[in-house]
Specification:
This protein has helices at 19-41, 43-53, 58-86, 88-107, 112-140, 146-175, 188-194, 197-207, 214-219, 223-233, 238-248, 270-284, 287-292, 294-300, 305-333, 335-359, 373-388, 391-401, 408-436, 438-459; strands at 3-6, 9-12, 362-363, 366-367. It is mainly alpha-helical. Strand 3 (362-363) and strand 4 form a beta hairpin.
Length: 472
């Protein structure tokens, strides 16, 4: 019988899973990432029109934008425990329902206050999806493919961001403005929110067609089902793998909650802190300022509304292309090298933006970039290149695989919650920082890029090629 060697292990040809089948189920899980990206970016094209329509104060408008991030932190926090108790698939279905409810509620919003509430609900769906997708993908993927398949989460996120910006752009082209009426006399910004309902229904429907995580099935002593899933999607000696997973789960108490994350002497395990700080540094270099406020930013430096939206679409396409690069490299060069190159590159681009905006004269609160405006646009897009081929996908890959089977769902919940809180901090502090000076804002993000580089050098361990059962 023919054998296939991979990283020193021998697997029979019959034991190798069909790659297309694995991509299909992991791609379905990654649809949560698509909705995650779509939901968080859809506000980009609508924010100014929403503020004008509801005569919202700057505080309330900022809250309506950022409250989805608080919802995401809450959804992520509870998703781990729910996933351990009820399974990964049920949590996907709950997330899909939250996305759908949020789409309809936001589209029919009659005050800025209920709009904020519906975005809170959608944010909770985002948070749940941000925990379940990387955990599920890591748990059902063969080790040799896990980095590339785990990167599908970020790829789906950036596709979702792109699709959202493209839909926003197309709707504005059709009506002339986000504030103008479109179909049935409803304002264009309402249709931006309604559009989220389509992928929400698709996600919920497809989640019903994929198998439960084999690691969860072993934890619940459903060994027959676990063996079938492992045979079809992971390959190798399924009996040995079930025994190995079982040993890795020994001593885990059912429904232990967050107590599983504590070390013997008290406090969180060091590996949990690494996950938390990876999440925080991913956000504190300012990536979501580019996506949440890019339209407002580019209009402030002289772009028209349509040109600003088109620039945002270009930035999103750049993010997609660089994520493809990451997918190609993550299982070849490893996670840590990509994080180091990405942090250093982001820091350089942010420094250029800090200097460009810092030295520009300001008239009536608007920086006069003149010919250096193209420098700012190029630096912003090059920043996205470095993020897209490193910290964007690699952090999600590592969060899905760096924790052992006992703590994965709960540790991912904590790390993802920290990421959403960090996202909230960056998104809500950017407007007041930028009112002082964009040079200051980008200077602070530059400092965090430097700290992120030092953190990776000192604390992050490579996980390329390791089985999940090898994680400590």
């Amino acid at each position: 019988m023919a054998t296939v060697s991979d990283g020193g292990t021998q697997q029979t040809g019959e034991g190798m899973p069909h790659v297309g089948r694995v991509i299909l189920v992991t791609g379905t899980a990654a649809l949560g990432g698509f909705l995650f990206g779509y939901d968080t970016a859809v506000i980009n094209g609508a924010v100014k029109a929403v503020g004008d329509f509801f005569h919202a104060s700057a505080f309330m408008l900022g809250l309506a934008v950022a409250i989805a991030l608080i919802g995401a932190a809450i959804g992520a926090w509870f998703a781990g425990g729910l996933a351990d108790r009820f399974g990964r698939i049920p949590v996907m279905l709950v997330a899909a329902a939250m996305f759908l409810v949020s789409a309809l509620g936001s589209g029919f919003a009659f005050t800025i206050y209920d709009l904020a509430f519906w975005r809170l609900i959608g944010g909770a769906g985002v948070g749940a999806a941000s925990v379940i997708a990387p955990a599920y993908i890591a748990e059902i993927s063969p080790a040799r493919l896990r980095g590339r398949l785990g990167s599908l989460q970020q790829f789906a996120i950036v596709i979702g961001i792109f699709a959202s910006l493209l839909v926003d752009y197309a709707l504005v082209l059709g009506s002339g403005s986000a504030a103008a009426p479109l179909w049935f006399g409803l304002e264009t910004w309402r249709w931006m929110f309604f559009s989220l309902g389509v992928p929400a229904l698709l996600y919920g429907g497809m989640a019903l067609t994929i198998p439960e995580s084999p690691r969860y099935l072993v934890a619940k002593q459903q060994l027959g089902k676990a063996g079938e899933v492992l045979r079809r999607y992971v390959g190798g000696n399924t009996e040995a793998k079930i025994a190995e997973i079982g040993r890795s789960l020994e001593g885990k108490q059912q429904h232990a909650g967050f107590s599983v994350l504590r070390k013997a002497g008290g406090g969180l395990m060091p590996i949990v802190w690494v996950g938390i700080l990876l999440s925080v540094f991913q956000q504190f270099t300012g990536i979501n300022v580019i996506f949440y406020y890019s339209n407002v930013l580019w209009q402030a430096v002289g772009f028209t509304e349509q040109d600003a939206m088109f620039t945002s679409v270009i930035t999103s396409v750049t993010n997609i292309l660089t994520t493809i690069i990451a997918i190609a490299l993550v299982d070849r060069v490893g996670r840590k090298p990509l994080l180091l190159v990405g942090a250093a590159g982001q820091g350089l681009c942010l420094l250029i933006m800090a200097i460009t905006f810092g030295i520009a004269p300001v008239v009536d609160g608007v920086p006069q970039l003149g010919g250096s405006g193209i420098v700012a646009v190029l630096a912003a897009n090059l920043y996205v290149v470095f993020f897209g081929c490193s910290w964007g996908p690699v952090v999600w890959v590592m969060l899905g695989e760096m924790f052992n089977n006992k703590i994965r769902a709960m540790a991912l919940a904590v790390a993802a919650s920290a990421q959403w809180v960090a996202n909230f901090v960056v998104s809500t502090t950017f407007p007041p920082l930028s009112s002082v000076g964009l040079g200051l804002a980008y200077g602070i993000y530059t400092l965090f890029a430097v700290l992120a580089t030092l953190f990776v050098i000192r604390f992050v361990q490579e996980t390329k090629g390791k089985e999940l059962e090898e994680m400590v």
